[in-house]
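sorry for the late reply, my laptop died twice this morning and i had to redo everyting from scratch. anyway the thing you sent over, i finally got around to it. pasting the sequence first so we're on the same page, its 515 residues, then the predicted structure underneath. double check i copied it right bc i was rushing
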Amino acid sequence: MRGSASGARRVHRAVVDGVTVCADRARTLAWLTDAGPDIAQLAGRLASSLPHPLAGAAMWGGVDTVSPGHALHLEPGGSCRTVAWWQAPEAGLSLAEAALALRKALSDAVALRVRPGQVLAADLSGGMDSTSLCFLAAEAGASLVTATLRWEALGNEDEHYARYAVDRLPDVESLLFPSAELPPCFAGLKRRQEPAEEPSPALRDREIQQHITRALRARGAELRLTGHGGDHVVVPPASYIHALVRRNPVLALRHTAGFRAQRRWPLGATARVLLRGGSYADWLNRAGGSRLREAAVPLPACETWGPRPVLPEWASTQAADQFAALLRSAAEQTIPLAADCSRHAWIHQMREAGRIAGLVHDDTTADGLPADSPFCDDTVLDACLSVRAHQAGHPWSYKPLLAAAMEGLVPEHLLLRTTKDHCDIEWYRGIAEHRRQLAAWAETSHLVAAGVAEENGLRRALLSPGLQTGGGAALENTLGVEAWLRDVAAHPVPAYLTHTPRHPHQEPLIDSAAH
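ok and here's the structure:
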């Protein structure tokens, strides 16, 4: 049994009455073993990021997750072993060669999802990722209905670029959703639903996406394409300069100067990225030390092995101890995804995109319109990893690999866009509108009850988010975990399982949702 290399599909295992049992849902195994949420995993989900192999781990005690790219072999006698089935391709192709491979992989991924006579929904922000998928879908003969959001911030350009694309797409119906006509961010906090496999950081968008889903389904759509994963897949982390400086110092210093000018990296931090050595185990041990509670600096240079995990101010001492123990344990037994730190970080950020894509797919399937992320298909990952990183991630053009792959299909005006819209106004307005509900959550917090969050700090964060140094992402992670714990408490038995009392020789009744 195996999932996907991207982690969008996963396999979990647990020992039930002495027998190894596998499922595509960790919660199925938790129900079979009467397992509760793992406190250390809850603590980790508060962090700003989760390194390999902690990202995507099962949230339940006694339930293990098979690492993406590995298969679980079950023997007739009951024993099992884990074997790698996927290996990253060699990064030897030029930009032009890799662009051809990416064009074919993305084209095939989209064509697989096009059905004759069916309406295909697609997000269309006007950004390079979603726009590329729309033109590929049109090339495959899809009848498209697109969704574009218009946020209030001055200077937002999504509507302009989306309209430019729609005017050049055949057989498309375009839907525009002004934010004033959408539910506010964080709407639906009181509504409990079946818990996902793990907490989702997208709690703020739940009601917004359901509103859009209803509109798309009313136009006959049965599947929705999303550009999620494009940012993670087609652009390698800038830490590739760490390896480049050892192969081509002059070129590496030029790239470094470009990143410093573009991202305002401090000189000292930049020098550490270029010069620092050390193994992945060393990096994990440092991450689990005193830096775990150290606030992130406003303009950091990139980390060698990936984003440094940081716990928010309201995380409890117990949470810090538990998470640090997870990091130290990982340091003792984890092999990096690649020998080169930047390649490891690139594969990991791809798998993070796949992990979120799986959560989004499950959530939207429950709403009646599954959302697929072609950028997270395994063949697309392979195509991107085949390129030389310094050609796909350099600072002088935006997403050069994807732009080269879409040349001749997507209009040049769209490929030259370098801006991203944001919803900061709507985010803060949503927090303000739900202030009473958030205050109630602080008073009855499941995170506080589990010993993972500190009550006063959590209350301050929920009621005065603008004062927090960690920004909105830290708060969204926390709200996602809090909502997940409340969903678990409200739905102790998975709806997709038939719950009957178990006897020593009676098999549990499980429907086809658990494979």
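DSSP finds 22 helices and ten strands in the chain.
thats about all i looked at so far, will dig more tmrw
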